[in-house]
Amino acid sequence: MTSPHAPNGRREFLKQGTLAAVALSTGSAMAQQPQSPPPPPKKQPVVEHPHDHVKAEYDGFSRYQPSRGNSPDSDFYLGKLVPGFRKPEEGPAPFVAPDLQPLSWEMKNGAKEFHLVCQQVEREFLPGYRMVVWGFNGSMPGPTIEVTQGDRVRLVVHNELPEETSVHWHGFELPVQFDGSHTLTQNPIKPGKTFVYEFDVHEEGTFFYHSHVAMQETMGMVGWFIVHPRKPFDPPVDRDFGLIFQNFAIMPNQTVNDSFAEGWNWHTINGRSGPYTTPLVVRHGERVRIRIMDFSPIQHHPIHIHGHTFWVTGHEGARAPKSAWIPRNTELIAVAQASEFEFIANNPGDWMFHCHMTHHMMNHMVTHVGPRSRPNQHVDQYLANLDRRPQIPIAHEDPAFAVPGYPQGMKGMEMSEEFMKTIWLRREFMGMRATAPKSLKGLMTALRVLPDDLYSRVMESDEPIEKGAIFQEIVNRFGTPAAYEPAPKMMMH
Ligand SMILES: [Cu+2]
């Protein structure tokens, strides 16, 4: 991860561990106490605006509260050209692909030289769910390549797979011999062999690299290739996130993806399923860019963000001229396409950010014969008593069964104590509602918009934070505390 505040390295991990341990013990204590009433309503504070090079409000659009501004033709309608806090001379905001690592390079003979190893990798989609997929350098998706427009790049690709491969640099206008189109433009890279690609990057934008063997793509062989413009785009953004959406078919009791399947039951964002996807945490009022790419085998993703309206500023081809930007809250992204959104984070809270395909909002889906025919039961209870063969009642006495189609609440996702510990160990999750992990599944993550002081508590401080505390504070300041019910203390492992 390249974020300056992201948990990265042992020291950060230890810090978080201590923090979490304190939070955990606080949590256990809380679990035995009666729930305290919500604090009395507070007046919405006047937001201090410490930045004199940008304004809090532009033509009726406020960076600190939900607002649209005036005319749809205004440059500032819905925050369209409202700048972030980052000064243009600071260069582009660092690109952050949560849960993925950047790929390092060395300058050699006038080119940035990167080394990629194609190989089978193990990826933990959820805590304890280690899946066997294919990727690069021990990662799926592969590590992120980040360069600047005008760079010359040399990509040394070594094949550790047991079969031939080639790597395609998706979208680049490069010399044809380095396009990586398996057998059309080069001889395949045989197992154990190396091929060197080299070209000048004259464009800027959101690119990616992937194996050009179709079934290998399905096994996960993809990674970001981000090219920053020589001159940062206007208006400057404070955050630049990248999320790769993928689907896999991994049947119960299996760890290996079925690359030939057409029904997909495991869904990942940067190689993790919700709630293991790492929330995007930003400061209230910042300008945020999110780049999304769909590398699913055959399915498209309508990506929806709550509480905000974003401008679509470009796709995988290039940045769009401002006159062509479109405001949306849901953007359909097809296979091998990318979309870039920008918005002002003017609405504090923990917001859902997800694919809207219903089947993509669940983990390890199977036909839930057991759980779906019996209400409020987990299939594990049934499996644990197979010797006694518990009867499945043909006539259900529960009155709910009078409703055709009941039940529809999916059961079967076990969140063990160890699982929950791993979820809550991450700094980015601190202070979310105790039940937050239950609502983030499959292709879902959270956008957290936090006022400066709460951002510091979550991302920069070692002060213990009780589950729900940050959310409660946001309701106190911006919502209606009297009408807010804290989450039950049910996930306090
Ligand atoms: Cu989807």
TrEMBL record:
<dbReference type="InterPro" id="IPR011706">
    <property type="entry name" value="Cu-oxidase_C"/>
</dbReference>
<dbReference type="GO" id="GO:0005507">
    <property type="term" value="F:copper ion binding"/>
</dbReference>
<dbReference type="Pfam" id="PF07732">
    <property type="entry name" value="Cu-oxidase_3"/>
</dbReference>
<dbReference type="Pfam" id="PF07731">
    <property type="entry name" value="Cu-oxidase_2"/>
</dbReference>
<dbReference type="GO" id="GO:0016491">
    <property type="term" value="F:oxidoreductase activity"/>
</dbReference>
<dbReference type="InterPro" id="IPR011707">
    <property type="entry name" value="Cu-oxidase-like_N"/>
</dbReference>
<feature type="domain" description="Plastocyanin-like">
    <location>
        <begin position="120"/>
        <end position="231"/>
    </location>
</feature>
<feature type="domain" description="Plastocyanin-like">
    <location>
        <begin position="263"/>
        <end position="368"/>
    </location>
</feature>
<dbReference type="InterPro" id="IPR006311">
    <property type="entry name" value="TAT_signal"/>
</dbReference>
<dbReference type="InterPro" id="IPR008972">
    <property type="entry name" value="Cupredoxin"/>
</dbReference>
<protein>
    <submittedName>
        <fullName>Copper resistance protein A</fullName>
    </submittedName>
</protein>
<feature type="region of interest" description="Disordered">
    <location>
        <begin position="23"/>
        <end position="53"/>
    </location>
</feature>
<dbReference type="InterPro" id="IPR045087">
    <property type="entry name" value="Cu-oxidase_fam"/>
</dbReference>
